[in-house]
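Student: Send me a single protein entry containing the residue sequence and its fold in token form, directly below this note:

Tutor:
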Amino acid sequence: MFTTAYNPNKDHEVSQPPNDSISALSFSPCADFLVAGSWDNCVRCWEVKQSGSTLQSEPKAEQQHQGPTLCCCWSGDGTKVFSGSCDKSVKMWDLNSNSFMQVAAHDAPVKTVNWIQAPNYSCLMTGSWDKTLKFWDTRQAQPMMTINCEERVYASDVMYPVAVSILAGRKVKILNLETKPTVHHTMEPPLRYQLRDISIFKKDGKPAGFGVCSIEGRAAIEPFDNTAANSKDKFTFKCHRSVVSDHHKPQDIYAVNGIKFHPIHGTLATIGSDGKFSFWDKDARTKLKTGEQLDNTITCCDFNHTGTYFAYASSYDWSKGHEFYNPQQKNYIFIRQVKDELKPRKK
């Protein structure tokens, strides 16, 4: 199924990658620094630099949890990194002082961390398999507030004044962040299998809806404006499936592990257990590009703040169980200079 090429797209290979499966990638909102969380318990940071037409990635520092790191995000000013772990803690890494201190806790592994920057407050939103979303002033030991969820929290995204979280049981919780975080409503997207990732897209500079993906080689685009429910803005599409010329033959269907929107163009990227990334134009409902297949699954991805770099992680996602795990297979983070590849199709 997989090729033998570990970097068939000839993208920049980040130096000194993690030693175990990579669970999270996050670019700074202000500069070209990349952090990664991984199952070797570590959080690592690299500085990405351009040297002529080539990229360089310089490892800057790393910190360690007591269990696998499942998620990471940046503060709004890019001076701090927050990471959540299977050790049930969230830690704040101050990159200036290199201090690493606990700022939040849950009763089960922490799966999501997102920084909220509102005009009248700022806080850290954390989501856990203990079925709660918590909101923290990082100077206080107790959360500002807790939202009890129907199920475990799997992924979240924030674009003020909206936050979205996907839960086990195929639920999406939509929060209004004005004045304070409150649940706006909970809904089920039109995907019939477990949800994997969620990402908010904007229109005219404001959050307009979200993309969500599932383990069944499918993604959905959902506008927040329900009056548009029957319009062209709301749809599902198939992705990360094998190409079958004979419709009588079975098709391989892979999990879509990540979905991210380009910060400038509003186009999007998906990544999958098939070892490929794809770029899409949701408005034209068309695929812009599919990358060459890697020799491993792609577990997570992110765009930098200017939309010039696309980072993606090649490591095992355990989608085929322990018998397909190869401890000798190295983990990689690649950075692609995307240039015009994510520009929308001309209308």
Remarks:
- The chain has a mean pLDDT of 95.
- Residues 267 and 281 are 5 Å apart (CA to CA).
- DSSP finds no helices and 28 strands in the chain.
